Amino acid sequence: MSFKKTIPLLMALLLGISMFGLPMSYAIPTFVTFYADVTQLGDAVTMPDVRGSTFKVALVIENVQDLYGFDIQFNWTTQWVHYTGYSVKIPENATPPGPGPFPPSPYGGILYKGPLGISELANQVDEADGIPGAEIGTMAWLGFSEKGADVGTFNGSGTVAVFDFTVIDQPFDYEEPLGVTVLFHITSSALSDRTAHAIDHVAQDLSITLYPRVFSYPAVPMLKVLPVDQTGALGSTVEYGVWLLGADGHDLDAFWDVAGADFYLNFDPTKLQALELVTDPNGTFGGFWSTGAFELVNQIDNTEGFAHCAFMGLGITHTPVSGTMMVAAIKFNVTAIFTTYPPPKTPITLENPLETGIWYIMDADAGIITLNAPLNNNFTSIFPTGTFPSQFKMTDYTDVDLDGKLSIGDDVVMLNYATSKWHDYRVADLKGTLKLTQLFTKFSESKFAMDGPVNKYTPWPKLYDSGTADGLGVPDAIGNFSLQYPVQTITKFLVEPQSGAASYELVDGVDFIVNPDGTVDLLTPLDEYIYNEHVGTMPAVDAGWPAIDYIASSFTSVYVDFHNTTARYANGGIFEEGPPGPSNGYNEWWYESWFPYELESWWATGYMPAGPYTWIDGTDIYLNYTVPAWVTIEYNAQPDVRPFYMEFEGSYDNFLTLLNPVNTTWMQIYPVNLKVWNLTEWVDNDVDGRLSNGDQITMTLGALTAVFIVDKRSTDIKVLEYPCVQDIDTTKPYFCEKRIVEVAGFPHPERSMSPWFERDYGIPLPCAVENGYFTSPFKSLGRNIDLYTDYPYGFNGKDEYGTPIDAYGPQSTIHLEALVTYAENPVQHKPVTFVASHGIYNFSFCNFTDEFGIAWVEFGLPWPCQDAELLTFGIWNISSSVSIREVTVTDSHTFLSGWLITIDSITPNPDSSFAIGEHLSFTIKYSSISHQVRSAVFTLVVTDDLDVPIAWWSIGPMDVVFGDGQTLVIECVQVPKWTFVGQGKVWANIYTDFPINGGVQYGPEGRTTIGLTIH
What we know:
Distance between the termini: 82 Å
Strand content: over 45%
Number of strands: 61
Shape: extended
Radius of gyration: 52 Å
Oligomer: single chain
């Protein structure tokens, strides 16, 4: 207890003692502690919800001697409990409280009351931790003392007060699996005897364990289309809202903390056309976020028939979204009417398109399966190729199209044996497939029978590749070589000499052998010898590297004849480094052993200035060398040991009835996808007259030909995986629950349960949807009358459920027509009654239908001398009626009468005063009640203080559309110097055309005044 807070109580005690002069005594140690009527809240095993339950806690002093007064302060854990009241049990000998005990305390009251009564020093409770003068954190402060010396001090144990508490919150089992502690903590305590000496004591807190409650999810979020069903007239506008609420039909629980949504509203574009999509139209969703709602997508597609809306909340802070709110509003125009009854009721659905995210092609292990009983079949995933051979089992099947069999568009549940998890899929395709074993593949390769890799010294492939590619030149080369694929058998080994000699074939086992490892040993040399080839005569040979006729595999000799009785002859590499150089002044290179594909004589034949060393004119060069032959090897490669899966390029039904497969096309799915093969040969090994297991087929892929054995004919399905709420834990709620639409939750890494799993990012939430409907309008084919005007279609009310009739100006001629039909056939020569009414006016007319079933009348709108606008402007009602075989049918409409375009205001810019020399500028604000676009001419005239026009302006013709608050800025000439300054006037009008062309006003003239000044 702090010094400043003990002084008031101790001073009071000392004052009482000094008044009576009593001797002081000393107390024995004691306890200040609590008793509660519960030892725990809740249950560690059953974990019931105990919110709202009550309990009592008593504050007691135990084993005290000579207690004259006390000062005790304490608090409790308000996160979980709140106090609802308390009663003080002082003094012990009063009635009440009487002798006690006072449960949960086993004791009676405390202190004694003498003639002077009891002194109350502190008696206050405030859970807000706001008791003035108390210790920080104190919520209850009780301080009492006896008065006078003629009352005995208290000995023993007694109850100070009993408090009532209610459990206001309780953690969930996933948050605090072992529970939490509700602590009653003494923040300060002081006990005093009659002599004002402190009584030693121990302040003892109380801990009560509050066990958690079992977590249960509130109703999941739901997106709902409202109204559930509605209709509308042809050409009219209907509106649907997408509402966010709980799936139980009540308010969305804040627990879900929805952060945004992404959904498609799908409709039939042959019956409706979307006009407008508004996100969060009332701002309710954005109101939960400090920065409001951010629109991610606002898209309308009237061809495919969807409105796509995506949005999210933004802000550093937010309140979890709760309640019921409209998150999108979509307006539609009704575009179709039906003459059959009942008219169609088409769904307005909330469902996002199933994107190609995760998908598989699966082959039925049993081969051809029974489509009307597909359950429990095992499948092997053959695409993506990286998943082969993942095993699946079909554990559930929904016949979406109700055709009684597994088909495209149906939903299936597939269990993955490897992961022990299942997912929902939509069947995207159904195919017939062959599982094949390759016997061999036919290849043909053409090469030079020489050493070296492709593009090394020559651009053509070589039969040998020693790996060093040094080009040393090996005449009569034989030995081991390999082709692109390991060889099974060689069907043709063709040799084509470079010299043009006749081609010939090599014989297996004589000229070559095929090794078990797929390599080949050439046993017969294939080089030709070229003798005494004349390379050229100087100086015609002047290129540095004289060309030779063939590609060489090795040079054997070079002969140079100078025709001066001198000749040089080199073989065996003697002239690779010329004759002794210094003595005769030069070195010579005839050829290079590492590059035997051309003659090397760069200095002597003039590639570089040779000076006196250049060979003399007329010198002839001759060459002896070997050349390799072209070889073309046709062979069967060793088979690819992997299984091949080929899908029939045709319908599944055609696959089932396929007999002779020659000239059919097949798509390879495994081991490499998207290769299209043609089946060119078929051997019906079981002689059953149809393609079946065990048959041999030959297939071509471009220049590639391969031979296979059919292992299995089977059913393949292509499935698209539905996005799901969570696929982490199969034992937890929402595992693989379909996400029909996307609703995102705010990050909650502290939540360990599904679907959060402590992930620190926003996750998809479970979400229910409820769709709506639209019932198209019905047009009876029996008796019918259709009333309309002579305005253009769309503004004239034509059709049984017609569009509204547009507004008319004063004194307009109203031309009414009525089409009378029976089963859409005109009814002729029938009297039709027409009625027009408004206020005091009520007109009736009659006319007969013509051969087209049309009757018509005309009348002009009245324009009385007084109160014309008051009496004639507003809504007019018109109707038509006719009797067809003693049954009356009617049609009715309304239209608005008034000034079609009016000037609402004229505002000078930038203020209401203009000086001589300044430009005049005005903003005209105007409105139109006509839904049709009207052509208009705007005029403006400015007069000065003596009514002399100083400026005038005309704009138009221009289009004016329906609506209020439209503006037009008119910039005029400068205020002329000759203006009579003072008050000017502005006159504005709107005409149907320039007055010189006969234009008349749409509405009254607009006027205002301005100031005209010198400066």
